[in-house]
Amino acid sequence: MTFVVTEACIRCKYTDCVDVCPVDAFREGPNFLVIDPADCIDCAVCVPECPVAAIYAEEDVPADQQDFTPLNAELAQVWKPITKTKKALADADVWSTVKIKRAELQR
Questions:
Q1: pTM flag (> 0.85)
Q2: In a domain, 100, yes or no
Q3: Whole-number Cα distances in Å, 101 to 11, 16, 43
Q4: I want to staple 92 with a disulfide (CB 3.0 to 4.6 A). Which of 12, 24, 26, 84 is the partner?
Q5: Nearest of 72, 81, 87 to residue 15 by alpha carbon
Q6: What share of the chain is helix, strand, coil (3-state, %, to 5)?
Q7: Which long-range contacts (CB under 8 A, 24 or more apart) does 100-105 make?
């Protein structure tokens, strides 16, 4: 099992989760974060840190977000690790309330 970043993170990219990850499993894209399943140790410390509740245990990913499990694995192979907190995207607070934003994902 691993943890998965889902749609709620798109265009927000809050990085509160990054600082608490003991194995630096997060990868950073232009407007989204993913968790590398090869590095994740299933500790769950990142889950309560996410202000938009975008992180789920693989077994608990909602049915309409299941495609984010393979997406995290795919993008983790091409995006670079992020190991320190950064400022969220400038309009993150506006996007944090938007529910449907898959089309906004930048690879």
A1: yes
A2: no
A3: 8, 21, 28
A4: 12
A5: 87
A6: 30, 15, 55
A7: 100/7, 101/7, 101/10, 101/11, 102/7, 102/10, 104/10, 104/11, 104/31, 105/10, 105/29, 105/31, 105/32
Q: For residue 72, what are its two tokens?
A: 């995290």
Residue 97 falls within a domain, yes or no?
no
Quote the strand ranges of 18-91, DSSP E.
Answer: 26-28, 33-35, 55-57, 80-81
Give per-residue pLDDT as tens, 15-37: 999 999 999 999 999 999 999 99
Task: Give the domain CATH number at 73.
Answer: 3.30.70.20
Per DSSP, 47 falls in state G
Kindly report, residue by residue over 40-77, the tens digit of the pLDDT: 999 999 999 999 999 999 999 999 999 999 999 999 99
68 vs 31: CA distance, rounded Å? 15
CA distance 93 to 52: 10
